[in-house]
Specification:
The protein contains ten helices and ten strands. The chain is α/β, with parallel strands linked by helices. A five-stranded parallel sheet has the order 2-1-3-4-5, sandwiched between helices. Strands 7-6-8-9-10 form a five-stranded parallel sheet, with helices on both faces. The protein is elongated, with a radius of gyration of 21 Å. The chain starts with 8 loop residues before the first strand and ends with a helix.
């Protein structure tokens, strides 16, 4: 059984059975950090990233032979808002950053590795980015791209923000990525807000995700038509930045 006092989870990925990579696991676990080891294999990574807060890629010779895995990691880091640390040599780092953009890499530690410094920085990162301190992720679903980008700009300083410009795209993303709240446009073509909310409610993988409707209408009929879907709130699009941030702050405080 895992220590209940552990905060956050670190996953170490390596293309080789590195002694140092394995020793990091023992070091982290001795400091109450939940840690797992994975090979640089897309299928293994895909099946094992649940609840990971931080990825550590232990680089080695032959990184050019796992470019498909690096492309996958680039997408995972972006889609799931995960931190990524690299450990290795300068030439390996230069190769990896051709695929994974530097802005997606928290830090690169060169060998010989200062394990105590790494442990200190990993612990500090997990303290700020896991458990109750984890920055919440909000998905905005709206076919009005101008409005969607405006809301994204309002929220990006306080939340991780994902976007989808139609219901089908939203359902596809939510099936693969965790979010804490969906801001859902009430009126959209093909699949409107209530239809998307109903699909989320009817899927056990997404039925727990709270939804706030965004609408240009304030009619009582619109509100009543979605009561059975149990939305977290129903917001007019005329709400301003401060009003929306306050609504979200109150919502997450209550949760």
């Amino acid at each position: 059984m895992e220590d209940q006092n552990q905060t956050g989870k670190v996953t170490i990925i390596s293309a080789t059975e590195s002694f140092l990579a394995k020793s990091l696991i023992s070091k982290f676990k001795s400091n109450d950090i939940n840690t797992a080891f994975l090979h640089a294999n897309i299928k293994e990574i895909e099946d094992s990233l649940e609840d990971t807060d931080l990825l550590i890629l232990y680089m080695s010779d032959g990184m050019d032979e796992i470019t498909d895995t690096l492309v996958y990691l680039k997408d995972v880091v972006s889609d799931r808002d995960l931190g990524l640390i690299l450990i290795g040599e300068l030439d390996q780092y230069n190769m990896v950053k051709k695929i994974i953009p530097e802005q997606s890499i928290l830090e690169c530690y060169m060998r010989p590795l200062d394990i105590d410094l790494l442990l200190k920085n990993v612990s500090a990162y997990l303290e700020k980015n896991s458990g109750e301190n984890r920055k919440k992720t909000i998905m905005i679903v709206d076919d009005d791209l101008t409005y969607m980008w405006t809301v994204r700009e309002w929220l990006s300083g306080s939340y991780h923000v994902k976007m989808a410009n139609n219901g089908v795209q939203a359902i596809s993303q939510l099936a693969k990525n965790k979010v804490d709240l969906v801001l859902l446009d009430y009126e959209m073509p093909i699949a409107n807000g209530p239809q998307v909310a109903a699909m989320l409610k009817n899927d056990t993988d997404t039925d727990h995700i709270p939804v706030m409707f965004l609408t240009s209408h304030g009619e009582v009929e619109s509100v009543l038509s979605v009561v059975n879907l149990e939305p977290a709130d129903y917001l007019l699009k005329t709400i301003d930045k401060d009003g929306l941030l306050k609504k979200l702050e109150n919502f997450f405080e209550k949760k």
